[in-house]
């Protein structure tokens, strides 16, 4: 299937802030910020097309990059914008287009095609420059935690190798050979403990433990190739319970990590479980994977995050018997969807659509009151 450019859709970019309490979209007219819990439009600015809009938690600071449709919105210029005052705080200019921006409370990371710059976010002093392989899509993953703050970048153009860089300590942590084919998507857990990757083939999703650069899980997404648009871990600070991904088929895939440990411990007591490594059986066992079909039209780019996971315990034994996840999805043709996903300890999945609305028709409270 031919790739469809996101420029043919009303949404040019979409991102959730670091705790998923808010999300931002860039359009051909400007950018908008929404409250994830209520869907309320919190802020909008109609000043031209934007291809990057990144928030710093729920603060008034935005990192924005224009689409280049007018000289003042060059894709080579990063603007740090204050939503309270409606003014630019600082601008950084580069020789080539900015492909991605990531932030936490101490660091600002700017990704170009063959270089990545690390800044102190307060002084905007440059701390390090990382020379990279050609990264035409600006593919990266970032864990905003100050304790485990890692940046993941592609390390090869011919295979799916990942470079992991410690952004706080400013040194290379490790390199992981995750796939045979080049990378298409990756995500770090919020505390930088795990990294999930998918290759351009899109049939296998792998999860590695960052500290030891070892594979923990291997999930089969499907038999036929598909472009993986996004990957996202649940917010757990321990072992993430769930990993979700969106694909060009229009489906949302959910993989059970926490509960697969429960199943693995049961299986290890059997003869088959004693001779087959857990990571191999995970790849072959469909019980840890469920698919929500037709969440968006096939080929339309989509972006999903797990905003919340609640665990349900048996009152008599205190054993965890289920978990419920809140999964938010932005589709680049202009929709927001939110699903509740329940998984029990038998790895049975149940999806329910909680809300859906068009992002570009939401009116702000200010507009209503005026």
Automatic annotation (TrEMBL):
Gene3D superfamilies: YVTN repeat-like/Quinoprotein amine dehydrogenase. Belongs to the WD repeat PROPPIN family. It comes from Prunus yedoensis var. nudiflora. One of its GO terms (cellular component) is phagophore assembly site membrane. InterPro entries: PROPPIN, WD40/YVTN_repeat-like_dom_sf, WD40_repeat_dom_sf, WD40_rpt. It is a peripheral membrane protein. This is Autophagy-related protein 18b isoform X2. The chain crosses the membrane at residues 46-67. The keyword Transmembrane helix applies. Keywords: Membrane, Repeat, Transmembrane, Transmembrane helix, WD repeat. It is found in: Preautophagosomal structure membrane.
